[in-house]
Every structure is written in C-alpha cells, then in structure tokens.
Amino acid sequence: MRFTLGPAPHIHDKITTRKIMMDVLIALAPAGILAVLMWGWYMLLIEVGSMVLAEALEFIVMRYMRKKKNFIPDGSAAVTGLLLAMNVPAGISWWMMAIGVFIAIVIGKEIYGGIGNNPFNPALVGRIFMYISFPAAMTTWPKVNWFHFTQSAFSIQTTATPLGVIKMHGMAKASSVFPHLMQNAFFGNLPGSAGEMSALALIAGFLYLWWKGIVSFEIPVAYIGTTFGLSAIYWFVNPGAYPDPTTAILIGGVMLGALFMATDPVTSPITSKGKWIFGVGCGVITVLIRYIGAYPEGVNFAILLMNALVPFIDQISRPKVFGEVKKNG
Amino acid sequence: MQVWTFKGGVHPPTKKLGKDSPIKKFELPQRVFLFLGQNLGKPPKPIIEVGQEVKTGQMIAQADGFVSVPLHSPVTGKVLEIVKKKHPVTSRPADVIVIERSDEDVWEKLEPVKPYDQFTKEEIVKRALEAGLVGMGGATFPTHVKLSPTKKVDTLIINGAECEPYLTIDDRMMQEYPEEIVKGALAFSKALEVDNIYIGIEENKPKAIKSIKEVASKYNIHVAKLRTKYPQGSEKHLIYAITHRKVPAGGLPMDVGVVVQNVSTARAMYRALEYGEPLIERGVSVTGEGVEKPQNLIVRIGTPISKLLEFAGLKEEAYRLILGGPMMGIAIDDAEIGIMKGTSGVTVLTSDIVKKGTEMNCIKCGRCVNACPMNLEPYLLYKLFKKKKFNDMAEHHLMDCIECGSCAYVCPANIDHVKAFKTSKTVVRALGRR
After folding, report:
1. How many Cβ atoms sit within 10 Å of the Cβ of residue A309?
2. How confident is the model at residue A153 (pLDDT cuts 50, 70, 90)?
3. Same domain, A306 and A201
C-alpha cells in the first residue's frame, strides 16, 4: 500500500529551529548594518566573517569530529558569530576576532554537545575570553565616523566610552564629554561595542521577533526594568556621579544584552515566572558591577552568572499542572 | 454571548474542508470488516459461527464484563470468516469478523420500542448497554458505564467542540439532526438525574450553534460557545471552559460532578431508544487534501475504508491515511479495514502537509510548555525519556499527558514527543506506578 506511517500529530506549524535563527539574524540586521555605516567596510568583514567562520567550525566539529552524518546547519552558529562581532570594538584585529569565534563555538557550545546543551551563552563566552586575553584591544574604542564605507577602522581616532568616563570621573564629566548623551544613545551615535550603539535599532529588531512569536517579553522587561529602577536609586542619591535611569539603560550593553543575549532560549529559563527571576537577577548584577565593581560595564558577567543559575531557576519555577492535587504530608 | 476557553493549546489551521457538504447515507457495503475490539475495556465475546446467517442489528458478540459492550451485525448476510488484521489502536493482530451481505436488509431491533421520554432511568442505562453504545468522539468508552457514575453528578456536557482540524461530521450532525441530539441529551440527563445540561460548540460552527440553540431552548439546555482552539474538545478542558471546575490530576470528570458525552453518542442514544437501533452505523467525515470531494457520510460500522476513499475520490498525491484527525488520529497503511464505532473521520493528507524531517536538539525554546494544555513540561519529559528515566518522568506528571500532540505540533526541533510519551506511559504502567 502506498500510504506512509508516522506518529501523531501528523501536521506541524512549520516553524523550525532554522527559521527561528534566520529571524534572529533578520532582527539583528538593523544594528549590524548601522555598525557598518559607522565604521566602514572592515565592520562588514568582521560581521560576515564571524558568521561564516562560526558556521564552518560547527560544521567541521559536527560532521568530522562528532561524526554526525545527518547534521544540517541550523543557523545558530551564525547567530553566535554575529552577536560576538557586535559585542567587540569596531577596530578589533581579525585574528583576535577569529580566536573569539573559535572559543565561542568550540569551547562555548560544541564541547557540551552542540546546540541546546550549552549552559552559557556561547557569544558571551567568546566575548569574556577576548576581554581577558586582549584587554587593550577590547577596550580601544574608535570614534563613530558616519557614512565612510571605505575608511579603515584602524585609522579612526579612538576615545573613551560614556560608561568608562562615568566610572572614572562621574556623570558630571560624562555629560560634558558626551553632549546629548541620552538622544545619542537612543539613536546610536556613541563609541562602544560595534552592535550595541543604537537602542532604536535593537528595539526594532526585538519587536520583530516578538511579533513573530519567537521571543517573549519577560526577560527584557525584567532586565531593563530592574536596571532602570536600581539606577534611579543611585541617581537620586548622587546625580553628579551616576547617570539618570533613562540614560543608564540606553548606554552600554544593556539593550543588546537584555534583548538578544539574555533571551537566548538555550541558556535562559523556560517558564514565564523563571524568566522574570532571571531578568531581575541580570539587572541587579549589571547595576552592581557598574557602580560597585571594578568594570565599567556588567552586562556580560551578569548574564553569564545568571546562565549558571538557570537549572536552579527552572527547578523553582515549574508550571502547576492542570488539576494538580496538593499532596498531603 | 460569552465565549469560553482554557489556557494553553494551539491554533492549527482548522481546514474544515467538508463543512458545507451535507450528510449522505452511504450505500451498504458488499462486505463488512468488524474488529471485535471497538470499545475501550474488554472486547466482546463472539457468539456466532462461520457460515451463520445474521440479520441487521443482531448481536454477534456479547459484552464480556462491565467495561465492555456487545457488537451487532451492521448488515443482513452470512458470516464469511473470522480473520486477523492489524488493529490500528494496538498495532497488534486482532480478530475481525467478515460478513458477506445478502440483498435484503432485514432488521432485528432492540425491544421494547417506545417514545424516548417514556424510558425510565434504569431502562436508559440498560438500553445503552444493549445497543453497544460507546463514546463516539474517539475514546470509545462504554456509554452505560459513564451513565452509572459512582459519585454525585450535577452537570451533563454534550461535546460538540470538534476541535480536530478537518473533521466536520459533528458540525453537520448538529446542523441536520439537532432534534435527535437534544433528545439524546435529555435521555442522558434522565439517566444521570441532572438538570444542568450544556452543549459546548466551538465558535467556528455558527450554523451548528444556531440550529442546536433553536431546539435546545425548548428544553432549558444551555449552549456554550467555545473559543476555536485545539484541544478544546478534550474532556478536561471542555469541563474547565464551561464549569470552571478542574478535574483533579489522575481523576475522572465525575470527581467534579460532570459527565461528558459526544454529540454523535447522544444521537445514537436517541435512536437506540426511539427506534430500537443498536449502534451499527455512524457519521464519518472523509476529508483532507488527499481526496477530491470531502464528504460527510452515514455509514454502516465495518464498511471498508477503501470504499469511502473511492467515493470521495482518492487523489494520486495521497500520502498519509489517518483514522481520525491529523492531531490525534492514527496513521494506517491498510485501507481494507472497517470503520469502527470510534472512527469519526478518515483524513487523507498530501506529502507537503505531513510533519516530517529529522529530529534536532531541543533548544529549550519553551514553545511546548506554552502549548501544553495540561501545563506539563514536554521538553523536560523528553529529556528524561532520552535518559530512560521513566520514574522521574512519572514524577513530572507524565501520566497526566492527554496525548493531544500540541507540543509536537509546535516543536521547532521536530521532536515527536507524543510517540515517546505513549511508550513511556506503557513502561511506567508496567513498572507499577499509579
């Protein structure tokens, strides 16, 4: 007989991991393209190069080292590569970038068994490795130089970031160095990591994902909300030293982190309740590192630390089964 | 009018292809193929011999125990043979009675025949058993057992949700036989001694709602409009949507004072009372992209599925043949088996619609958790299944899974959760938990 057999359900909503990853890439595109407009062709090379290298590394590991003959690339490595590229200063050396991608994909992801098994966000693993290994290069920030596609990112004058100035000299100084800080942070006209510049571009990308039903809003709202709230307290106590809360969530990596890194499904909690806990935790740690710790920015460490807690958060935020009866004793 | 529903669930395209196709009486088949096991519980014991002449409606197998119902011959003719065929539900070889039809259609009816409202409570329950009634929505639980609850029941719900995509037979039944369905519901309510009667219908069936309402309003029966969402017709979720009572995990509807019966079962009950007809025919949707003209047919039980496919026009591209709908139905490769008491539809799908593709790693996206109407964590259960930790699966409420398939429907990694959970349930039962 010509009929095929197969388990129920026999239909599917046709949303696959690959489609999700493609949508994430689309969502990252506005911020990624802005980086190219700010720093020129080299940024395009870094972004595309990282994506290609990441996919190639994953393919080699899966096909030839883990001997998965039926492995088909799902695009998740490209997402990691692009996120990492967006998380470094524009003038990063290509070989440092390559090492970062290698660490992210191989150490951050594949050694655990590939997608779905890694406890930490691979892009953040790569970012932290680069941050520790190449501290100078990772904190040299080229100035934004709009619409010069042929410029070399290495010859651009370098500068400090708002968060760096706030850490060293306080908010009053930062306001004079960076006029219109809040507006510039929102539209993306400040030095910093390549892809974290424009809150507007990142939010637009996130809204696309949300509209597609791929991400939920809990983690970003909890993360950004907590950062806003705690920053407000600091600002209220000493407005000369700390930025106002709106500026605080717009500068640095909070937007990129909260919207695209903390929401990585593999390394974040499953349930809505768990996501709220996770997001609040990220926000608290971010602010504490920013204002009390040694680093000017705390997004990376905050998310990694909370990643480590995900199994525990999942445990305490299990959904209540329909009609569950309370056990006695 | 208020619209009722539950949390979770999914929205597969409803694809009610045959919704405007009126119910036709299908011709009597030359041969019928009757699985002995057509009901949940114990299959009945055959009381005929090969070569014996039987009449339409004559009992050919008698109930074996309380949770069992008799089986009746759907045609007049001669018992040809008893063969073994792969049973779609158990996938094991099972006894099939084959009856060759003769030219006449001579009935042997259940006695006594009198107006449905003249039956007493006890007589109704007895008639449900004698007529071999089972839940015709697909679960095939013996109706007389459901009509004999061991706890106090105050509400009867008639299930007209028909949330499975493609299937349209209940919708057509409610449009064309509202009187019979309502009277069957009244008989059920008499047997259960309840006055609170609801008929729950998804809002994508406005014509059914209208026609049922017209009849129901005469008898103080409420029509509850339900949101179109899968699995709205799941017993527990239907009860929750209408009464806001939650059947406790591992419990039965009667634990919250409710009994649910399908609309087709209600109609069969009425016909068993008013006309003395045992359950030998039922409504079936023959539908899907794999047939030329989707149909709603009343067919004799045991009619070979191949005959129905022929009638609806099987397309060249037909790829999967499903008993039931695409979410919970069972794929079969042999169209020479007969329609059963629980077969509400035959869905034929083409290759482009059928779920396939290789399983990938779970990315913990949580879509399954959001989709699960029972609030389980399918991703976690599947992870435990991979590690063969069946006891841990039971701890995480495996046994509460209603196998609706919502998780596998939305899974981007193409994981077949339900298949894994069905296997695991068997293992857990064998291990003696619950």
Report:
1. 14
2. low
3. yes
User: Token pair 């953040």 is at which residue?
Assistant: A124
Q: What is the pLDDT of residue B358?
A: 84
Contact at CB, A115 and B365, closer than 8 angstroms: no
Residues in chain B: 434
Q: What is the mean pLDDT of chain A?
A: 90
Same domain, A109 and A187: no
Question: A310 and A169, same structural domain?
Answer: yes
Residue A45 belongs to domain spanning = 17-137
Residue B21: which residues within 8 A CB-CB, separation 6 or more?
Answer: B168, B172, B293, B294, B295, B296
Ranges assigned E (strand) in A265-311: none
Kindly indicate the confidence band of residue A151, based on its pLDDT and cuts at 50, 70 and 90. confident
The total number of structural domains in chain A stands at 2
Touching check for A327 and chain B: CB below 8 Å? no
Q: According to CATH, where is 3.40.50.11540 located in chain B?
A: 1-279
What pairs with residue B200 in β-bridges? B159, B224
Topology, domain B1-279: Rossmann fold (3.40.50)
Closest Cα in chain A to B316: A2
Residues A165 and A285 both lie in one domain: yes
- Residue B231 structure tokens: 């699995």
**Same domain assignment for residues A184 and A115:** no
**The last residue of a domain, from among A103, A137, A171:** A137
What part of A 76-95 touches B (C-beta under 8 Å)? 76
Residue A151 in any domain: the answer is no
Assigned token pair, B93: 């070889």
When the pLDDT of each residue in chain B is averaged and rounded to a whole number, the result is 94
Most A-contacting residue of B360, B362, B407 (CB-CB within 10 A), to test interface = B360
Same domain (yes/no): A209, A297: yes
Q: The tokens of B323 are what?
A: 């008993």
Q: Which amino acid is at B240?
A: Y
pLDDT at residue A308, as a whole number: 96
Would residue A149 count as lying in a domain?
no
Helix (H, G, I), strand (E, B) or coil at A305: helix
DSSP string, B284-353: EEEESTTBSS-EEEEEETT-BHHHHHHHH-B-TTEEEEEEB-TTT-EEES-TTSB--TT--EEEEEETTT
Query: How many angstroms separate the CA atoms of A21 and A32, rounded?
Result: 15
Instruction: Say whether both A120 and A181 belong to one domain.
Output: no
Q: b or e along B333-344 (b: 16 or more beta carbons within 10 Å of the residue's beta carbon)?
A: eebebbbbbbbb
Is A10 within a domain?
no
CA distance A114 to A127: 18
Residues 304-363 of B with CB under 8 A from A: 318-322, 326-335, 347, 349, 353-358, 360-363
Asked whether residue A219 falls in the same domain as residue A103, the answer is no
Dist. CA A305–CA B289, nearest whole Å = 51
Which is more confidently placed, A197 or B127? Answer: B127
How close B120 comes to chain A (CA, Å)?
Answer: 35
Q: Is residue A153 part of a domain?
A: no
